Amino acid sequence: MESLNHIKVGNSVKVENIFAEGLLRERMLALGFTKGAKIEVLGRGPSGDPTVYDIRGSMIALRKEEASLICVSPINFINNK
Q1: Side by side, which strands form the sheet with 70-76?
Q2: Domain boundaries 2-76, corresponding CATH code
Q3: Beta bridge partners of 71
Q4: Are 64 and 6 in contact (CB under 8 A)?
Q5: Cβ-based neighbour number of residue 77 at 10 Å
Q6: In the chain, is it the N or the C terminus that has fewer CB atoms within a 10 Å radius of its CB?
């Protein structure tokens, strides 16, 4: 398993675990980052941060440090080099 911040644009993953605590954990759960939720990586900002994700039909932007707290497993990977 990997953290969400390492997944390339165009790939889809599912949430396995969230390692955030406190208010950040509550925010992530409220945004739909729950175990088993499917996430598609849509794009990154010009400097590589933040990254936009499609989760449950909503576009959510997370910074690298936030995305690194979400453990995911692959659904389908495309070959992005």
Answers
A1: 2-3, 70-76, 12-18, 38-44, 51-55, 58-62
A2: 2.30.30.90
A3: 3, 17
A4: no
A5: 12
A6: C
Output the pLDDT for position 81. 46
The two three-digit tokens of residue 35, written as one number:
């175990």
Give 1's pLDDT tier (boundaries 50, 70, 90): confident
**Model pLDDT, residue 38:** 96
Exposed e or buried b per residue across 13-37, where buried means at least 16 C-beta atoms within 10 angstroms of its C-beta: bebeebebeeeeeeebeeebbeeeb
- pTM of this structure: 0.85
| Distant-in-sequence, close-in-space partners of 65: CB < 8 Å, separation ≥ 6 | 5
Residue 76 and residue 15: Cα distance in Å, rounded?
13
In angstroms, the CA 76 to CA 22 distance is 31
Distance CA 59, CA 54 (A): 5
